[in-house]
Amino acid sequence: MRRRWIMHVDMDAFYASVEQRDHEELRGKPVIVGGASKRGVVSTASYEARAFGVHSAMPVAQARRLCPSGIFVEPRFEVYKAVSDEIHQVMLHYADGYEPLSLDEAFLDISGMGSQYQSLTAIGRAIKREIFETVRLVASVGIGPNKFLAKMASDMDKPDGLTIIPYGREQEILTHLPVRRLWGVGRVTEKKLLARGYKTIGDIQRASEEALRPIFGNQARAAHLLSLGHDDRPVELSRDIKSISDESTYEEDLTDRAAIERQIAIHADVVASRLRRYQMAGRTVTLKIRFASFRSVTRSVTLEDPTDLGEELYQSCMDLLSRVMIREGIRLIGVTVSNLLPALEIPSLFSEEREKRKKAALVMDSIQNKFGKEALRRGIWVMEEILAKQAEGKRDQEE
């Protein structure tokens, strides 16, 4: 049984960072996004302003007292929403399961991504890099066995953090943290805990549920389990999806045609699997290629019938690739499917042969969901691994 890995992506000082990105004169300054009214509250403060003690939800009047040099900016929510849409689209390149929490953060189920990246660190670095390249903003990433630990990890090394909490070290990492870091502990509950001698999460770990019940009520068991690092809640899949995509930036530029086609096949399979997981099918297929010079091209085609089959997406991408002039190495390849329809609402569009392929794909999905992506893959995935190992062996010999 594969291990579950959850990623939490959290944009650093999101609103303030967008303002600093868009207005050069604000960079490096204490920027406070919030209403100009004395009765307003702070939406977000830049890290320069946070050094003065300013934080979100603080009254503007208090923020002015704490940070007299602060630059107060009216929020531009329509801009933040547009930037957020770009960021969340990047997240879909990395997740089989995706749960947006707000404009600037989301949980991603990355349990099935191991075959595409060498390590969890590589996945975290990849999504941070792609977000920065896309919107020129910095994200902090946390990865852990569950949602609680992933969220905890993303907060541990802000800004621009990447923290992984591995299996087996959950309690050790949590034990010395203050009780306010436990989910569900607000100011009132924190006061109750401190009054009874509970200062760290480790104190809660060592307590019985009965002892915690006067503080947490019927949530005592849940609080105790969280203190131990246990959280079984699944990532709740977002249904507000306009497209599904997958892409990779390569450490070395691709120049070999066969290698390029293999990568497209892998991306097509990943996108098809996600379509089936979301019970969607799509009509518009887009191939994205970014060259070594950072020049990007996209080519799209709209199919007569919607599809969620990898081989059909791959064939469409091959047709699109034939329309791209390749004169230099390729550093990024992406496959996107849009113009989506709920698969359950689509009349039977499949021929008998396509229906057989759909059933085979669903069986593959079931096996991979249970045992991991490595348990069963199409031959082109296996060939990619063989070639990679051969290249690695050749490099070792040369060294």
- Overall helicity: 40-55%
Structural class by helix and strand composition: alpha+beta
Termini separation (Å)?
Answer: 37 Å
Strand count = 12
Quick one: overall form?
A: globular
Number of DSSP helical runs: 15
Strand order of the largest sheet: 5-6-1-7-8
Average residue pLDDT: 85
Report the portion of residues in β strands: 15-25%
Order of helices and strands: EHEEHHEHEEHEHEHHHHHEHEEHEHH
Low-confidence stretches: 372-376, 381-392, 394-399
- Radius of gyration, CA atoms, in whole angstroms: 24 Å
Secondary structure elements and pairings:
Layout (H helix, E strand, L loop, with lengths): L5 E6 L2 H9 L8 E4 L7 E4 L1 H4 L9 H7 L4 E3 L3 H15 L5 E6 L2 E5 L10 H16 L3 E6 L2 H8 L7 E3 L5 H5 L12 H9 L5 H5 L3 H8 L3 H8 L15 E12 L2 H21 L2 E12 L4 E12 L2 H12 L8 E13 L9 H20 L7 H20 L1
Parallel strand pairs: 2-4, 7-8
Antiparallel strand pairs: 1-6, 1-7, 2-3, 5-6, 9-12, 10-11, 10-12
Helix pairs in contact: 4-5, 10-11, 12-13, 12-15
